[in-house]
């Protein structure tokens, strides 16, 4: 059982983010859907517009366990290989 102390401050984590692509033209997108109502619909419509305007393509969709969960560490390397840009969306 994990017990969390609500008075403790979170430990900062160093993020290793790759540089943003210089251009969107032809970029490969991975969509991260958080399971909220309409999340995937919103992401797909955004991807469709980006595709029409910039020629981007969706190279994958990752579904999180719930909106409050982070992307699993083991999944991140695969997302980096498959995408030039990852878009995480919400719904409701």
Describe this structure in words.
This protein is an alpha/beta fold and 92 residues long. 25% of the residues lie in helices and 20% in strands. It contains 2 helices and 3 strands. Strands 2-1-3 form a 3-stranded parallel sheet, sandwiched between helices. The chain starts with 27 loop residues before the first strand and ends with a strand. The mean pLDDT is 87.
Question: What keywords describe this structure?
Answer:
92 residues; alpha/beta; 3-stranded parallel β-sheet; 3 strands; globular
What is shown here, in short?
The protein is α/β, with parallel strands linked by helices and 92 residues long. It contains two helices and three strands, in the order βαβαβ.
Q: Which stretches are poorly predicted, pLDDT < 50 over at least 5 residues?
A: none
Helix residue percentage:
25-40%
Helix/strand class? alpha/beta
Q: What is the mean predicted local confidence, pLDDT?
A: 87
Distance between the termini: 31 Å
The major β-sheet equals:
3 strands, parallel
| Biggest sheet, spatial arrangement of strands | 2-1-3
| Strand percentage | 15-25%
Task: Give the beta-strand count.
Answer: 3
Q: Helix and strand string, N-terminal first?
A: EHEHE
| Radius of gyration (Å) | 15 Å
Total of DSSP H or I helical runs spanning 4+ residues? 2
Instruction: Give the overall form.
Output: globular
């Amino acid at each position: 059982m994990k017990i969390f102390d609500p008075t403790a401050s979170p430990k900062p984590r160093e993020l290793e983010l790759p540089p943003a692509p210089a251009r969107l033209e032809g970029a490969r997108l991975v969509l991260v859907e958080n399971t909220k109502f309409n999340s995937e619909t919103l992401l797909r419509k955004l991807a469709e517009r980006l595709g029409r305007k910039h020629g981007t393509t969706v190279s994958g969709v990752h579904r999180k366990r719930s909106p409050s969960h982070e992307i699993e560490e083991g999944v991140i390397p695969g997302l980096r290989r498959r995408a030039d840009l990852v878009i995480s969306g919400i719904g409701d």
